[in-house]
Every structure is written in C-alpha cells, then in structure tokens.
C-alpha cells in the first residue's frame, strides 16, 4: 500500500499537459480545487469529473496509475463518508441501532467523498506532469511579488518542492525497513486495524533516523555545490508563456464560467 502513493512522483512524458508552463499548471490546479468546493449539485460535480477526465486523457498518464494513489487514503475517504452520513440531521431514510441515516447526510457524504477523490487526483496530476525543478521555479515565480514585503519566495518554493519530492523517497525507505523487519519475524498484516497500526510503531525510530540522514546528505550536497539560495541565481531554461499556455488559460476561464453559471442557474 505504501508503494501506491503517487503524490510527489513525476511521470515522464511529452504530452500537451507536460509542456505547459508550471505557473499555469499551478494556477489551474488551485482554481480546480476551489471549483470543487463551489459545486453543490450533481451536474456541477459531473462537469468537474468530465473536465478532469479530459485532462488525464490529454496528459497520457495511465488512469490505473492515478487511481492507485487512492488506495492509501481509502480508509480516510470511507471514514469521512460514514461520519457525514450519520451525523448530518435531516429527513430520515433508515435507522441502524442508535444511528440514523438522513437524506441530507447521504448527499453530503457523497459530495465530500467525491470532492476528496477529485482533489487528490487533480493534485497528483500536477506533480505527475511537472518536473521537480520546474515546479520549484513555478512556485518561486508566483511568490516573487511577495519579496517586496520580505517573504523569502525562493526558500519557501524550495522547501515545498523538496517536501513533495521526498515523499516517494521516504516511502521507499519505509518499504525497505518493513521488509527488513519482516525478514526478522515482524508481522504487519495479520490482526485487526488497531493491531496493524500498533505493529507500525517500531518503524518510526529507524524511519526518523533515515529521514535525518537523507536531510544531512542533501544539505552537504547543496553546500558542496556552493548553494546560496536564490541570490544571483540564473536558469538554463527560462519560463516563457506560449500559445498553449494562453489556450490553457482560456479553457480555465471557460471552465470557471460554466461552473459559476451552473451554480447560479441550477445549483441555487
């Protein structure tokens, strides 16, 4: 299950989505996430699903590879669904012991689960189609206007990108530690959920040690290359907005316009 997490990974490709400017992709992703919480009915959610499906098809990232990233958070999605289904008051549909299922609760549970799924897939698509260095440059460029008020844009962009980039690395380390402990007789798969969760506690100490070791190696590598932050930094490949980026911006505006019109005319 640990190897199924796709957030932070990069899927090589030469699709139209891969060649978009990272600044445009970041803005589009943020706008899509906001749009997910704007829709309040089935038709708006259907529009969001169709748009995301088209983008995935254009990106040429295998759908199975993206859906694989939902496995590690399946329990969170299920917990959110059940919690909303039983805790929202409204028109009663059924009684289960001391719990009550309401029409409003079922509707809220469905929309929250759907939003989480689309949000995770949409966010994963950003990292899957953007190289880490391009993502860093894009975040830094978007935060650069804040430099005037003392915000360290380069440092923030670097920290965010390193955090995303090292998710797969730490997952690989966790997998290695689990296999080493399983070879010594550890059992991570038998028993109920609580027992399996407790069996993962011995992983924390070696995982923290490994994380500090990786961080120290990264710091030494950056110092050896005379890294001094964003000061006087130049780029081999500059970012320039092209025709495809303009087309993506127009499509984003059209998508937001459709979502807003649907909310005003149908979802009110």
UniProtKB/TrEMBL annotation:
<feature type="transmembrane region" description="Helical">
    <location>
        <begin position="246"/>
        <end position="266"/>
    </location>
</feature>
<dbReference type="InterPro" id="IPR024919">
    <property type="entry name" value="EcfT"/>
</dbReference>
<feature type="transmembrane region" description="Helical">
    <location>
        <begin position="30"/>
        <end position="61"/>
    </location>
</feature>
<keyword id="KW-0812">Transmembrane</keyword>
<keyword id="KW-0472">Membrane</keyword>
<protein>
    <recommendedName>
        <fullName>Energy-coupling factor transporter transmembrane protein EcfT</fullName>
    </recommendedName>
</protein>
<dbReference type="GO" id="GO:0005886">
    <property type="term" value="C:plasma membrane"/>
</dbReference>
<dbReference type="InterPro" id="IPR003339">
    <property type="entry name" value="ABC/ECF_trnsptr_transmembrane"/>
</dbReference>
<keyword id="KW-1133">Transmembrane helix</keyword>
<keyword id="KW-1003">Cell membrane</keyword>
<dbReference type="Pfam" id="PF02361">
    <property type="entry name" value="CbiQ"/>
</dbReference>
<comment type="function">
    <text>Transmembrane (T) component of an energy-coupling factor (ECF) ABC-transporter complex. Unlike classic ABC transporters this ECF transporter provides the energy necessary to transport a number of different substrates.</text>
</comment>
<keyword id="KW-0813">Transport</keyword>
<comment type="similarity">
    <text>Belongs to the energy-coupling factor EcfT family.</text>
</comment>
<dbReference type="GO" id="GO:0022857">
    <property type="term" value="F:transmembrane transporter activity"/>
</dbReference>
<comment type="subunit">
    <text>Forms a stable energy-coupling factor (ECF) transporter complex composed of 2 membrane-embedded substrate-binding proteins (S component), 2 ATP-binding proteins (A component) and 2 transmembrane proteins (T component).</text>
</comment>
<feature type="transmembrane region" description="Helical">
    <location>
        <begin position="73"/>
        <end position="98"/>
    </location>
</feature>
<feature type="transmembrane region" description="Helical">
    <location>
        <begin position="110"/>
        <end position="128"/>
    </location>
</feature>
<dbReference type="InterPro" id="IPR051611">
    <property type="entry name" value="ECF_transporter_component"/>
</dbReference>
């Amino acid at each position: 299950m640990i190897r199924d997490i796709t957030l932070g990974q990069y899927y090589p490709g030469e699709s139209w989505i891969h060649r978009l400017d990272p600044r445009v992709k970041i803005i589009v992703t943020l706008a899509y996430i906001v749009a997910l919480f704007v829709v309040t009915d089935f038709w708006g959610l259907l529009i969001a699903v169709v748009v995301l499906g088209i983008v995935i098809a254009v990106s040429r990232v295998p759908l199975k590879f993206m859906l694989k990233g939902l496995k590690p958070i399946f329990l969170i999605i299920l917990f959110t669904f059940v919690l909303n289904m039983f805790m929202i008051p409204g028109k009663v549909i059924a009684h289960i012991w001391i719990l009550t299922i309401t029409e409003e609760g079922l509707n809220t549970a469905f929309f929250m689960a759907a939003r989480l799924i689309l949000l995770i897939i949409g966010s994963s698509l950003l990292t899957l189609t953007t190289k880490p260095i391009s993502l860093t440059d894009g975040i830094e460029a978007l935060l650069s206007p804040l430099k005037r008020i003392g915000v360290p844009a380069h440092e923030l962009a670097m920290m965010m990108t390193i955090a995303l980039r090292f998710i797969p690395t730490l997952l690989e380390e966790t997998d290695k530690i689990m296999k080493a402990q399983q070879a010594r007789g550890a059992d991570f798969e038998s028993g109920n959920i609580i027992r399996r969760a407790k069996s993962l506690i011995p992983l924390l100490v070696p995982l923290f040690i490994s994380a500090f070791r990786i961080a120290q190696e990264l710091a030494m590598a950056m110092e050896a290359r005379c890294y001094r932050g964003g000061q006087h930094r130049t780029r081999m490949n500059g970012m320039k907005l092209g025709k495809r980026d303009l087309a993506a911006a127009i499509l984003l505006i059209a998508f937001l316009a459709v979502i807003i019109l649907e909310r005003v005319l149908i979802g009110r």
